[in-house]
Structure formats: structure tokens, C-alpha cells
Amino acid sequence: MSPEFIIGCGLIILGTICTAWPSPRDYITRLINLEVAAFGLLLVMLSFDETIALLTFVAVSGVGVFILVRVIGKKEAASQ
Fold it and tell me: How distant, in Å, are the alpha carbons of 22, 24, 61, 73, 75 from that of 38?
């Protein structure tokens, strides 16, 4: 096993746990913790093939952040 794979798996597990049970319960903390898990996924994919890893990471991160920012905006607008 390569070091990228092991570190990536650790970041995926850590990011997933921190996203599910964040310490301060706000949406920006969940968004940051989700990016930690996404970076772990990038490292796991880099251990197999670099090109597909970078393309997938850019696509998933872009779409995921866009969706989460819209959800955060709607939640804040609904609470005011």
C-alpha cells in the first residue's frame, strides 16, 4: 500500500465523522469538514491514477460546494 492510500483513507474517515457530528453545529463547519473528506478521496484516487483523480476531484468538489453553498444560503434566509 502506498502512503497516499493510507493517508487518504484516514482523511476520508476523519472528514466523514467530523461532518456527521460537528463540534459547532453550523453549516460552514460541515462544509470545511466535507472538503477534508474530499481531499482524502483525492489522495486515494492519486494512488491509482493521477489524471482520473484530478478530473474527478475538480468535478465533485465544484458541484458539491455549489450545492452546499445554496443550501446554506436557503437555511440562513429561512431563519431570518
Answer: 16, 20, 7, 22, 23
- Angle (nearest 5°) at CA 50 between 48 and 55: 115
Q: Does the pLDDT value for residue 70 go beyond 80? A: yes
Q: At 16, which amino acid appears?
A: T
| pLDDT value for 54 | 79
Sign of the alpha-carbon dihedral angle for 53, 13, 61, 39? negative
- Domain boundary assignment for the chain: 3-79
State mean pLDDT over 48-54. 78
3-state secondary structure the chain: CCHHHHHHHHHHHHHHHHHHCCCCCCHHHHHHHHHHHHHHHHHHHHCCCHHHHHHHHHHHHHHHHHHHHHHHHHHHHHHC
